Amino acid sequence: MATITPDTHIDIGHNDDPNSNYLTSSHGFLSWAFTLDHKRIGVMYLVGIFSSFFLGGIMALLLRLHLLMPNGLFPDWLVTHDTYNQLFTLHGAIMTFLFIIPSIPAALGNFVLPLMVGAKDVAFPRMNLASFHLWVLGGIFFLIALVTTRLDTGWTFYTPYSIQTQTNVIAATIGAFILGFSSIFTGLNFIVTVNTMRPPGMSWFKMPLFMWAIYATAIIQILATPVLGITLLLLAAERFLQIGIFNPALGGDPVLFQHFFWFYSHPAVYIMILPAMGIISELMSVYSRKPIFGYTFIAYSSIAIALLGFLVWGHHMFVSGQSPMTAVIFSGLTFSVSIPSAIKVFNWLATMYKGNINLATPMCYALSFIFLFSIGGLTGLFLGALATDIHLHDTYFVVAHFHYVMMGGTVIAFVGGLYHWWPKMFGVMYNEMYGRLFCLVVFIGFNLTFFPQFIMGSRGMPRRYATYVPEYQIFHQLSTIGAIVLGLGMVGAVVVLIVSLFNGRKAPANPWGAATLEWTCTSPPPYYNFEHAPHVDSPYDFSDLKYDPQVGGFVKDPNAANKPKSDSHH
What we know:
- It is a multi-pass membrane protein.
- It comes from Blastopirellula marina.
- GO terms for molecular function: cytochrome-c oxidase activity; heme binding.
- Belongs to the heme-copper respiratory oxidase family.
- The chain has about 575 residues and is mainly alpha-helical.
- The protein has helices at about 30-35, 40-65, 80-115, 125-145, 160-165, 170-195, 210-240, 255-290, 295-310, 325-350, 360-385, 385-390, 395-425, 430-460, 475-505; strands at about 545-550, 555.
- Strands 1-2 form a two-stranded antiparallel ribbon.
């Protein structure tokens, strides 16, 4: 068997130019649409996912503008209550299924994971391409629902209304069903890649924590997503065939749909947040110039979150009529799942302690994440406690909690990770000043949008209503102003990155001084990622890296052999 050493040259295929990278070896549209290169697939996901984010964000802004006045800002002939219902339904469905679930695993995970394991691609490149094509196909079905008879069930498709409504539930459920297959393909690919393609020397506890997070996420994707698929098929069968599964008029049970739906959709919350936590683990270590504190605890906590996430779905149903004992058990389990999340937060804070902190744009997003995610997590305790949840259920308190975790957590981490890996992906540096400025704008706009919703929710303002009594107007107005600021901040953050593609200075191989393998190849990576098999060391040992002003980035320190090695696991 041939052995691979750090000096082994890896054949990079039939490109005439051995220095070509995945960006410059282009031959038209088809070379992208049918590429098997994980990097191109990651970039295509990135474009598609941000397009979905933009569409969902426009809907959110329209909703918030409408709520500026107690009886609605827009006249009835322009925005009826039915139109309002359709807007918030499609906002939720697009943001959940098309944007936030695939965002980090499909875009950043696809690009970064093979580089992190020192491989030239994922385990199954054709399955990877199929997952992207399925994502596009699923998105098309959501667009069909958007432009035909719309959708007004709420993003959860609750029965019995979803059986009776005349809107296009079928197109949306088919879209979500197809997107589920995309999610399963991605998860399966990542599990096999991590299990079988790690290089010699990369044991489980020498893997970067982002890989641990993606691995735990992939477990949830494979185990939970089929439940949603079957549920949506049953819903379609109920609409077409009237077989009496969820329809109470035919002896069915609408609450059964809720059990099926949340058995997937609560683990799906961790599909959304676990990869974000993996990104924060990377950012905290790199920009604090310190080995991650409590590596083993953070790694195991990812797996613990993945497994405990399957046991807490009933906390969405405290007011559905389930037995008091069941509610108490689900409440207790809900509190237990907060423990591994808290372990991560405290370990990130401990990593920063006495670190040489670099407040680059990605670190600003990481600090924002810790603040916003902590608020989201702590307010979840009120919803997990039976006595307070009865009052807060279906109010704006739930909306604020959900957005603090999902947008304040996942989206902020996603943008932070994008800024972190952008030089590696495209080989250009962005404007740091504007990057930090728009991070601040996003942070202010986010809190102004969602914090007032905690107050009006605790005072009884129900969610999903198109009108409200005047006493809540000040909170809605603050929230709408915040949404506009947040929208401008997000657009600005994306523009900074896009502008860098045209006038950004060339990125060095390792601009941040990170120690994981993806920073050992050029920026952007060559066609097959690595000219030589990379040498595996601890992913959080920065002792042998020094800044070279001529390169504008970090390089191996030739004197590092004489220095004591730092231990990345303690």
